[in-house]
Amino acid sequence: MSDYLPFIVCDTRVGWIHRDFASTLGPFDDVFSIVDGVVYLSDRLSDYRSRSEAVDPVLHLLDANGWFSGWRNEAYPVGTGFYDKPLFEMERTAVPRFGVAAYGVHINGFVRDADELLMWIARRADDKPTYPGMLDNMVAGGQPVGLGLLENVIKEAAEEAAVPVEIASKAKPVGAISYRHEEDNCLKPDTMFVFDMELPKDFVPQNTDGELAGFQLLPVREVMAITADTADFKFNCAAVNIDFFVRHGILAPEDPDYIDIQRGLHR
Description:
The structure is a single chain. This protein is α+β, with helices and mostly antiparallel strands. The chain has 2 domains: 95 residues, Transcription Regulator spoIIAA, CATH 3.30.750.160; 163 residues, Nucleoside Triphosphate Pyrophosphohydrolase (Alpha-Beta Complex). Helices cover 27% and strands 34% of the residues. The strands form 3 sheets. Strands 7, 8, 9, 10, 11, 12 and 13 form a 7-stranded mixed β-sheet that branches. The chain has a 4-stranded mixed β-sheet with strand order 2-1-4-3. A two-stranded antiparallel ribbon has the order 5-6. A hairpin with a 2-residue loop joins β1 and β2. α6 crosses α7. The longest helix is centred in the N-terminal third of the chain and has 17 residues. It is elongated. The chain starts with a strand and ends with a helix. The mean pLDDT is 96.
């Protein structure tokens, strides 16, 4: 943590910024200031709109200088917690650089075949800017400004797997997974809201937004073996898989790592 500076807005820490990236904010002293190892958003920006409008052009300039990967044109809220009123919004791709808490929805698409469970597993497209070609949950997406969780589930399910609204709207919320992940001098404190979506046997997902290369339907124990023995899954999708195995009794308390695994899903 000594490599990161706290990011303060309205006297409240909302993120962590690596020292190397913090130095790029110096020229934008009408928006950011760095004092005694702390990055502040200017106090003259007194409300949600003024903060958002001041930060956005800075992010565009930083993006042009190669600091971000894959501009999404998708705003994320910045604040102290999911249920708290956000202080401003920023472009999704910039969130990791500022160490701001981000939220998303991950949906386990599964099928029952007699006593066996099978899971639909997605593979990310090779041209995705993050984790190309890796295995993924059937549907997953970040939680943007202006959408409720179930609304986002329905939207993402339609875009990523062509799931009809009458099926997607019945997805069951089954919990949340949280973690803090460091990569490329970014500190990501993320929370994933997890949903289970039982699908008809004859349903075959089809990607419509180009972000996935395809899907495969696998027995749940095969998915568990891939999760346990390889690094083929995007790391946070592996965590969602593990949560599914625990909740459905596939990963049992007899496993010597059971308690540590349970704790590890909530950081």
